[in-house]
Structures are given as C-alpha cells and as structure tokens.
Design goal:
100 residues; alpha+beta; 4-stranded antiparallel β-sheet; 4 helices; 4 strands
Length: 100
C-alpha cells in the first residue's frame, strides 16, 4: 500500500466549485484500487499549533501501488473536470508515504 496525504487550500468564495470537483474525483479513486480513508475539514479550534497556513481540507488516501495512483491521475473522466480544480484550489501539498 502507498498513502497520500493532501493539504488543500481553497480560493475564497470557490468552495462550491471545489465540492463539484470532489464529487467527481473522489468516486474515481475506487476505480484504481484506492480508498479515501479520511476527508477532514478542520475548524479554527481544532488546530493545536501550526507553522504553515491552515488548510481548508485534509485528505488521506491509499492506493495498492504507485501505478494505481498514476492511473488515477491520468483518468480521462477526471481530466474533464480539472478546470474546476484549477478554478477553486489556490494550492495543495501532497505527501507520499508508506505504512510503518
């Protein structure tokens, strides 16, 4: 298994556009041997300490292999909606890891 944690920063006012993209992208994960393990939208009082900007959402996803993840990224149906991602996401940080 390979794990990805993503910190997502939204352009203010584009939350609904982001949700439209996620409604399409998240189900596509399953097509490529992946699972969304966590989707967290933290609130101001859930941060104990931070030295970076606070993300709008945090995702934890697993895929069986790197190739499964690469196939997900190249999914043609997902690519049709990337304009929604570009319109709504200011920045994101993707962290790759393995279970220890």
């Amino acid at each position: 298994m390979i794990f990805f944690t993503q910190l997502i920063y939204i352009i203010e006012g584009q939350e609904q556009v982001f949700d439209q993209f996620e409604n399409m992208a998240i189900p596509a994960i399953l097509k490529y041997n992946g699972r969304l393990l966590l989707r967290v939208r933290p609130t101001e009082n859930t941060f104990i300490e931070n030295n970076i900007d606070k993300p709008y959402e945090i995702h934890l996803v697993e895929f069986e292999t790197q190739q499964d993840f690469d196939n997900f990224i190249q999914d043609e149906e997902r690519k049709k909606f990337l304009h929604l991602k570009d319109q709504s996401i200011k920045a994101s940080i993707l962290i790759q890891g393995n279970k220890l």
